[in-house]
From TrEMBL:
Keywords: Iron, Metal-binding, Oxygen transport, Transport. Signal peptide: none annotated. GO terms for molecular function: metal ion binding; oxygen carrier activity. Pfam families: Hemerythrin. It comes from Candidatus Competibacter denitrificans Run_A_D11. InterPro entries: Haemerythrin_Fe_BS (IPR016131), Hemerythrin (IPR050669), Hemerythrin-like (IPR012312), Hemerythrin-like_sf (IPR035938), Hemerythrin_metal-bd (IPR012827). The keyword Iron applies. Residues 30-144 form the Hemerythrin-like domain. Belongs to the hemerythrin family. This is Hemerythrin-like protein.
Length: 170
C-alpha cells in the first residue's frame, strides 16, 4: 500500500468539503419556508454523507438518520398543511409520495439494524435522487400553485433594483 502523499491527502480533504447535494436557485420552489426546510434537508443528507465518508461509525450514522427522519416529518407536515389550506388539487398524490419515502427510510433503518455492515451508499444515493427529483418536479408544481393562488407570499426581490422599486410604490 502506498503512503498517502500530501497531494492525495489534500484532494481527499477537498472532496469532503464539496457538498453531496449542492443547493442552488434551481432547487427553489419560490416559497421561503419550504425552501429553507429543503436547504435543511439537503444539509442533513450532506452531514450523513460526511459521516459515511469519514467513517464516523454506526451510532453517528443512526443519530443523523433519526434526526433526518424527524425533520422530514416536520417538513412534510408543513407542505401538506400549505397544500390543504390552499386546496391544492394534487394533495393526495403528493402526500402518498411523502408516506412512501418515510416507509422506505424505515426499511433502510431496519436493514441497518439487522446488518450494521450493509452499504450506506445505496441509501445515500437514493436520498439524494429522491430529494432532488421530488423538489424539481412535485414541489415546484406545488410552489407554483401556492404562489399563483396567493396562498403564500413570494420571496422578496433579490436584486437591488427590485428592492428600490417597492418603497416608491412600483
Amino acid at each position: 500500500m502506498k503512503e498517502p502523499t500530501l497531494t492525495r491527502m489534500q484532494e481527499s480533504v477537498s472532496s469532503l468539503k464539496k457538498d453531496f447535494i449542492e443547493w442552488s436557485d434551481a432547487l427553489s420552489v419560490g416559497v421561503e419556508e419550504v425552501d429553507q426546510q429543503h436547504k435543511g434537508l439537503a444539509q442533513m443528507v450532506n452531514e450523513l454523507n460526511g459521516a459515511i465518508h469519514g467513517g464516523w461509525g454506526k451510532e453517528t450514522r443512526d443519530d443523523i438518520i433519526v434526526k433526518l427522519l424527524e425533520y422530514t416529518r416536520v417538513h412534510f407536515a408543513t407542505e401538506e398543511s400549505l397544500m390543504s389550506i390552499s386546496n391544492y388539487p394534487h394533495l393526495k398524490e403528493h402526500k402518498k409520495q411523502h408516506e412512501n419515502l418515510i416507509d422506505i427510510v424505515k426499511a433502510y433503518v431496519k436493514k441497518y439494524n439487522e446488518n450494521p455492515e450493509a452499504s450506506n451508499y445505496e441509501f445515500l444515493f437514493f436520498l439524494k435522487r429522491w430529494l432532488v427529483e421530488h423538489i424539481m418536479k412535485d414541489d415546484k408544481l406545488m410552489g407554483e400553485y401556492l404562489i399563483k393562488t396567493g396562498s403564500v407570499k413570494t420571496k422578496k426581490p433579490t436584486s437591488w433594483w427590485g428592492g428600490l422599486r417597492k418603497p416608491f410604490g412600483h
